Amino acid sequence: MTGGQTGRLLDTGLLSAVQNMAMNRALLSSRAAGLSPDTLRFLQFKPCVLVGYHQSVEQEINRRYCNQFGIEIQRRVTGGGAIYFDPLQLGWELYLGREHFNGADLGGITRRICEAAATGLRQLGLNASFRPRNDIEVAGRKISGTGGIIEGDAVLYQGTLIIDIDVERMASALRIPAEKLNDKALSSAHERVTSMRREMNVVPALDQIKTALQQAFESGLGIGFKSGLGLRTSETELVRESVDEFSSDEWIYQVQRSPVETPNCEARYKCKGGLLQLQMRVDLRHRRIKQCWINGDFFLRPARLVNDLENHLRDCPFMKLEQSIREFFTQHEADMVSLVPDDFTRLFQIALDPLQETAG
Amino acid sequence: MATVRGCDMPDTLLYDIDANVWCTLDDEGLLTLGMTAYACSLSGDIVACMPRKPGKEVQQGKSCATVESGKWVGPVKAPVSGEIVEINHQVVDDPAGINEDPYGAGWLIRLRPLDWQAESTHLLTGRAAQDAYAAKMDEEGFGGC
Questions:
Q1: ipTM
Q2: Is residue B143 included in any domain, yes or no?
């Protein structure tokens, strides 16, 4: 099959994380082998945390909390960071032939798929848009994270849609030190992540959400996704085999790294433009930022630029921080009062100085 | 050094056009391989690299390493079957090195081919490789490195 214009719609309902991951492996392999058509799948998860393919559980997950509350720990086949998933979120996945993207690089494929998803959300009344590199946002707050994997001439691209979210549970399941799990950290998460429940007076029914996304993907990608086709026998067999593999510790804990390599750090910097505060998680092994949160008392408009800057600096090597911050402010028109891009560079330097000394 | 659409392509290396990897065989019969500048350009900034472990055998066309960029995971395919004898720990610790120097410090793996004679016939070098890449880039609508 060459991945024509007629694809398949699957809705696999609420499954465990290992079952969903096994589906990823089976459906992608099958699509790459030309044995199955382009596919759109909707899925939901029983409570679980999922680390990205190259991440370490020890670094990302609060195992004690997850064990205590029966939250399953799994590894995704796709990239990106650790996420908490429960039935309050809807997952969507596309298994497609690369020929649909006509030579686009990975960023181009991401954009096309995410813009289609954002269109679907706008149909539902949300003011959603794609935020590079991989998010869909509403008024600067993330409502959907995405990631992908390539196998041969096929891609799997998947995203979450936050219909509702238990921020406290999410923050507890992911590895955030107890002392950070205070009101400030939770309020910080609320500023950066949103949900359909928070953004809309009435949340549409699940079926309505799925229909809007399906129509947007069909129109954005030029593929019709037909329901009623189900899994092929070979796919069902492959799911069964993959469940065995993905249930093993060898799969889940295959990347072993110490949490000591990814410390949290913070800084305060008082400058002419006000007070800048930073909380940050860094990767000492790769000498780069994992994630950062900036707040404080300063004037920067549009306000969403703070979140955009945080997003821009994710995975940024320490060495390239200054250049990357300058690039950001060259690319984005910012209205600042007595604040200059170098103030942000200084803020990061203050946070990094003690670590650089430790790392030698 | 030769370039195709702005992508470096050293003349002396062998290329697996489909897998988009380069390789070179040394006097001891060990094959060093890595991603081409074209593959690096398609990927963007690489943030993780996980080669398979030394001692593992990989089949031709199967994944001998994975790389991640922009939340995408992709395989690096072995141009021939062989046993992995060494991995480049430097790029595991600093994956950006793959983008910075794909043909030098950014190499990924050394493997001992199982049947070099039989499996290496599809590898191209020099002008033939450059022409094949130019055609591939045209077909894929690639704008250039």
A1: 0.87
A2: no
